[in-house]
Design a protein that fits this description.
Blueprint lengths: L1 E2 L14 E2 L17 H19 L4 E2 L2 E2 L1 E4 L4 E4 L2 E3 L4 H22 L2 H5 L2 H17 L2 H9 L4 H27 L4 H9 L5 H21 L1 H7 L2 H4 L10 E4 L1 H4 L24 H4 L20 H13 L6 E4 L1 H6 L7 H23 L3 E7 L6 E2 L5 E11 L5 E9 L4 E4 L4 E2 L4 E10 L8 E10 L6 E9 L5
Antiparallel strand pairs: 1-2, 3-4, 5-6, 6-7, 8-9, 10-12, 11-12, 12-16, 13-15, 13-17, 14-16, 17-18
Helix pairs in contact: 2-15, 4-6, 4-8, 6-7, 6-8
Length: 471
């Protein structure tokens, strides 16, 4: 970002006109680490997220990986549930629910998803942590980069790069491990016995993690992420965003501790620039709301620490709304938020009901269309059906096949098929009836398939029984 020629930046509230040079070389951001409420909150949000991501593939349940998206067999195992391509609608629902949840959170508290839960932010902070371990704090990293190469610099830089590669490799292994059993993937990868596709995707995600979290960092948030561009359509004057209070902080300027700054005509802002130094995207929140802000709250921690040292009230920078800044109050409940919350609650309720009541059994009845009916040697009218039973449960079952309708049909075929987990049974079933009982040429029949164990799995499918013309 370069300044407009002839315009000098002001430390006060005067507007600074800036132009963007599209060919300008990126200036590396050296973030400062400061403890505070929002940094601790971010850590507590990341621990279960990272722990779940890296540990879930290693959990086993009923002799298989607990979370396993088995693409070759088109089975998606999530703990004790198994989903099939027929359940694709549930995935669509889940994506819609996630989108509405993001919209709801954005309307209420702004871009906190980016600051606290976005994988780009989480892995970037993980890489920055490794950088801090090997190269020291912000000032030490700046000095190290400017210093000539030496043994010490080589050790620190190579240690950081090694840690980055290990984190990236672990990320790639884990991601591919959700689709390929991870207990087999890891040893097979290093002995080159893994499938070429598994090796390719592991290295691909390793490289992308290394580049995104190690080098691109804030550029992903600033230039690549679409959410940064369309978030403004979800904001309103009552959305909670990280804001600087200029009426209290301006005019800013340095001063000695214990001096009455009000008598000098200065505001509470001491112009220490700590809020800029801790910002992952390198912006100055004092310039107002900017699309680059990811609402991580680190500038709030930095400013609060300075205010505490100076003996001033905290929250010169804080989560607030435009209405609060202008009128001193905010309106939390508003039509847009109520609409989002209502729609989200309905979708979550319907999704939960569908998952809970979902029966992992699919039955398909295909009537023989080449032969409407035939007459058996003993004078009965017979219809032939192909019955398919898809056992989508994670257990083997023996099913009992029965039929009901307007007449007492005689059913023949394999009426107690055993179907293994994830298998599809296909068999022929014959229905026979004395033509003297027929009152209609075309009648409805219902095939019932029920598991003989305590699982309670059952399905009923409708078909037609066709006989000769009734006189």
């Amino acid at each position: 970002m370069s300044e407009q020629p002839g315009v000098k930046p002001s430390a006060g509230s005067e507007e600074v006109i800036r132009v963007l040079d599209l060919y300008e070389t990126r200036e590396k951001i050296y973030t400062r680490k400061l403890e505070g409420f929002y940094r601790n909150l971010r850590n507590w949000a990341w621990i279960p997220m990272l722990g779940g991501y890296f540990l879930l593939p290693w959990l086993n349940m009923d002799g298989r990986q607990a979370v396993w998206f088995d693409l070759p067999t088109r089975q998606f195992h999530i703990f004790n549930l198994t989903f099939w391509p027929q359940d694709f609608m549930l995935l669509a629902w889940l994506l819609i629910i996630s989108a509405f949840a993001l919209f709801t959170v954005t309307v209420l508290v702004g871009r906190v998803w980016c600051g606290f839960s976005c994988p780009q932010t989480v892995w970037t902070m993980l890489f920055i942590w490794a950088e801090h371990v090997w190269e020291g704090d912000r000032n030490q990293r700046i000095k190290l980069d400017k210093a000539p190469w030496s043994v010490n610099k080589f050790i620190r830089k190579s240690g950081k790069q090694t840690t980055w590669v290990l984190i990236a490799l672990g990320t790639g292994f884990t991601f591919v491990g959700y689709f390929n059993p991870i207990r087999e993937l890891v040893p097979d990868f290093f002995t080159l016995e893994a499938h070429p596709a598994a090796i390719f995707w592991t290295l691909f995600f390793c490289f992308m993690t290394y580049m995104n979290a190690g080098y691109l960092r804030e550029q992903v948030c600033l230039y690549m992420c679409p959410y940064a561009r369309f978030q403004s359509v979800m904001f309103d004057q009552d959305t909670m965003v990280v804001s600087y209070k200029p009426d209290r902080g301006e005019p800013r300027g340095a001063r000695k501790r214990g001096v009455d700054h009000k008598s000098e005509g200065k505001g509470d802002c001491v112009d220490c620039s700590l809020c800029v130094q801790v910002c992952p995207t390198g912006i100055d929140i004092r310039d107002g709301l900017q699309y680059q802000c990811i609402s991580c709250g680190l500038c709030i921690d930095a400013c609060d620490s300075v205010m505490a040292k100076m003996g001033y009230p905290k929250r010169l920078i804080g989560f607030t709304t435009e209405h609060t800044l202008e009128h001193g109050k905010a309106k939390i409940l508003r039509p847009r938020l109520i609409g989002y919350v209502t729609a989200l609650a309905l979708m979550v309720g319907l999704f939960g009901f569908t998952v809970v009541t979902r029966v992992p059994l699919e039955v398909d009845i295909i009537r023989d269309r080449n032969l409407l009916f035939r007459e058996t040697t003993n004078g009965l009218v017979e219809n032939i059906y192909t019955l398919k039973i898809n056992n989508m449960d994670n257990r083997d079952h023996v099913y009992h096949i029965s039929v009901r309708g307007d007449y007492d049909y005689v059913i023949e075929g394999d009426l107690m098929p055993a179907v293994a987990e994830g298998e599809v049974y296909s068999g022929v079933v014959r229905l026979q009836l004395d033509p003297g009982f027929l009152r209609d040429t075309n009648s409805t029949v219902f095939f019932a398939v029920e598991a003989t164990d305590e699982s309670g799995l059952s399905r009923q499918e409708e078909s037609r029984f066709i006989g000769p013309r009734v006189r």
